[in-house]
Specification:
The complex is a heterotrimer of chains A (96), B (95) and C (94). Helices cover 22% and strands 35% of the residues of chain A. Chain A has 96 residues and is an alpha+beta fold. Chain A is elongated and about 45 Å long. Chain C has a five-stranded antiparallel beta sheet with strand order 4-3-2-1-5. Classes of the chains: A alpha+beta (96), B mainly beta (95), C mainly beta (94). Chain A: One of its GO terms (cellular component) is Lsm1-7-Pat1 complex.
Chain lengths: 96, 95, 94
Amino acid sequence: MLIFSVFKTLTDQQVIVELKNDLSITGVLKSVDQFLNIRLDNIKVLDEARHPHMMAVKNCFIRGSVVRYVQLPAEHVDTQLLEDATRREAQNPNKR
Amino acid sequence: MSSLQGYVDKRVLLVLQDGRSIVGIMAGYDQKSNVVLSDSKERVYSMEEGVEEVPLGLYLVKGDMIILIGEIDENIDQAVDLSTIHAEPLPPIRH
Amino acid sequence: MDPSSSGIQEPFDLIRLSLSERVFVKLRGDREMTGILHAYDGHMNLIMSDVEETITIVDTESPEGSNVSVAKRKMDMLFVRGDGVILVSPPSRS
């Protein structure tokens, strides 16, 4: 729930999603859901010369389970807030 | 659920777990993100030859197999001569 | 030692006490990283900053037998999906 909320605060920000097939896609985060499925707008594959498969794709839906990393815009992440929220969630293991 | 509704009736690219790329019109989907494509084709990539399009027709793809759904910009897609594109297939997902 | 005195009763407590500290994370696919831990959840999804990732590549094709090389890269702020996490280790307190 916590991580889902963090992603929600980052909508409309530029991110880089790295998949478990080593494909990296940059784009504007448009939405996330509880499974951390991700919708990106205005996308670009980082190594497009090697992976031209998505040249004509402008926006996409990525299955959460195939994501390895997401690089986030550090200037839009309040780390103190994150740590406090994480401690709070760790204290009441209500709905993990 | 980050909905797939916006992709219905659009031309889309599906990338599958095993690295295959399939294009077609999204006819529908369900809760488990199973997807039905009409007029679908697999795009087979290789370094030796240009991209080969293998017609598949009406196709049902299981949601578990799909790693990415992308909306295709028709103008860009039509401007690309697939026979000139040489590339390795996308790698399969390794969990 | 009384486990309660350290504030550690369950494995996740060890991670909780590492918040805002540099941690070492081992991941699937011969990947390791260090970074400052800012958030985690029960799936071991992590958010870390100032991350340095190390990928170990074993080249078995090479003529001189198996050859090991490492690739490093840095990332400012990173979400790591929990299903790839093998272990999280707190900073060494020396």
